Amino acid sequence: ALAKKRCINAHMAVRKAFGPGPVEEEVIELLNWLNVFDPRSIVELDYGGLAIYLERALREAGENGIDSDSSIEDVHHSVAGLAAGDGVMAGEGYERLVSRWRRVSAIEQAM
Asked: Which of 3, 63, 54, 67 is nearest to 31 (CA)?
């Protein structure tokens, strides 16, 4: 239920900031997926095979491996910025997230 509530809040923030469009549609797709589950379910982030690449990317960036991943916090920061109408705050979280996952993608493609 909390994940669904956060997704609804993210949808409202995205819609307010960008209007209808591809970003909003992705959030709606996530919300529709969450609606499949019982409200008492727990949503767990599973990196799957990406864990190897994320670990390497974070260590190469001088961080403490996967334990230092702040992707969830970065998304939260960005959505909070959108909700507050603070483009700088939204951009900070987004930039941190995208920068990290670009490094992961580069490692994955190189292997």
From this structure: 3
Q: Do 4 and 28 contact (CB within 8 A), yes or no?
A: no
What single DSSP character describes residue 37?
Answer: S
Block mean pLDDT (10 aa), the chain, length 111: 91 94 94 92 86 92 92 95 95 95 88 76
Cα-based distances in Å from 85 to 57, 60, 63, 93, 94: 32, 34, 31, 14, 14
> Which residue type occupies 74?
D
Q: Which token pair is 10? A: 């993210």
Helices (H), strands (E): how many in the chain?
5, 0
Please choose, from the candidates 43, 62, 66, 46, the residue with its C-alpha nearest in 3D space to the C-alpha of residue 54. Answer: 66
